[in-house]
Amino acid sequence: MRRLSNETSSRRLLDRARLIAAATAGAALLGLRVGAQAPPPAAADRQPQALSMSTDHLVVSATLAPLQLQRGGRATLTANITPKAGMHVYAPGSRYRAIAIKLAQGSPFRLDAPVEYPKPVLYTFKPLNEQVPVYNAPFRLIAQVALDASKAVVVPLRRPLPVTLRASLDYQACDQRFCYLPESVPLRWTVTSTP
Questions:
Q1: Domain residue ranges in the chain
Q2: How much is the average pLDDT of 142-163?
Q3: Any residues with CB less than 8 A from the CB of 8 and at least 6 apart, and which?
Q4: pTM above 0.70, yes or no
Q5: What tens digit of pLDDT does each residue of 87-122 get?
Q6: Is CATH 2.60.40.1250 correct for 46-194?
Q7: Strand 161-171 relative to strand 183-194: parallel, antiparallel, unpaired?
Q8: C-beta atoms surrounding 12 within 10 Å
Q9: Which of 124, 162, 169 lies closest to 45, judged by CA?
Q10: Which residues contact 77 (CB under 8 A, 6 or more apart)?
């Protein structure tokens, strides 16, 4: 019987350990492919994604969180709005077009509660001697949204499904002399619906 040197024996043991480690890693990968649960989402997936934009009348920063929703879960859409110098937008209760968060027609989401508005201030429009509720300083709107089961969103049993949330911030801005045409600021996020 031939005796192996210590170096050859060590090399064979090391090769065998590498083969076992490779086989174990391959089996683990194969297990993930055939239906094992995916690892938890990275912390970045749970952070709100901010959208920032500026129009001739407003500066808007909007977030949606969380970006992963389980069936029946809700996300919070927050819009921080700053009217530009001399501008105001109408608040609910005015007979003019009030600022609003609206979901796109046919959206797989629904507003899960009324949009939260801050208390407006009364603005006197001197040419008509009229008082109207407005926002003329930075303010925040908050909307709760949820997946709408009646829109036939089908969630596969074993994998997450990306769903696009399309919404808009609709408003009409005015200054001391003019009211401008109504505008719509688009808002869009991709939400992951998990089983």
A1: 46-194
A2: 75
A3: none
A4: yes
A5: 999 999 988 899 999 999 999 999 999 999 999 999
A6: yes
A7: antiparallel
A8: 11
A9: 162
A10: 62, 63, 64, 101, 142, 143, 144, 145, 165, 167, 187
